[in-house]
Amino acid sequence: MSRKKNEFFEWMKALGVAVLLAVVIRTFFFAPIVVDGVSMMPTLQDQDRMIVNKIGTKLGEIKRFDIVVFHATEEKDYIKRVIGLPGDHIEYKDDTLYINGKKYEEPYLEKYKQNGVDGPLTEPFKLEDIIGRSTVPEGELFVMGDNRRYSKDSRHIGTIPIESVMGKTNFVYWPLSEFGVVK
């Protein structure tokens, strides 16, 4: 009888360690997310399943053009691309991105631009027209969706606090046809 009891406790201990390990990994390191909506098309599709890397979300580790997940509201998380870092001046004119006066290519938008969209993909703007400041404030990011015509992003909600960033993501695991790293 005591042998069965010991075996039961060993199984319970192993199960408890597994559950604890899963909670720690999901809380501090990685978490699954589901893309909800079309704001990141063509890079990400509605209902793509991705892994969020919670490691390396401090300011020095977030780079321009990273795809990040952040808490937009208490109920809603957004997934967007980092366009501006603290101190950056952002401007769009003639469907071209300028950061601190330097022109930047956005290869992730080429698919939309090649489809011959009617009018600009990204309406012209200057950062000061949106947030009333000429540069992205310290501790904040300027983010945009890749589907510029249908994205609620920093053009609408303003810059986002870096503390609201849950993590970076660039790996789709479902559907299998989209499996892999996105840029």
From TrEMBL:
InterPro entries given in the database record: LexA/Signal_pep-like_sf, Pept_S26A_signal_pept_1, Pept_S26A_signal_pept_1_CS, Pept_S26A_signal_pept_1_Lys-AS, Pept_S26A_signal_pept_1_Ser-AS, Peptidase_S26
Catalytic activity reported: Cleavage of hydrophobic, N-terminal signal or leader sequences from secreted and periplasmic proteins
Active site feature: S39, K80
GO BP of this protein: signal peptide processing
Domain Peptidase S26 intervals: 9-174
UniProt family annotation: Belongs to the peptidase S26 family.
Protein name (database record): Signal peptidase I
Natural source organism: Aeribacillus pallidus
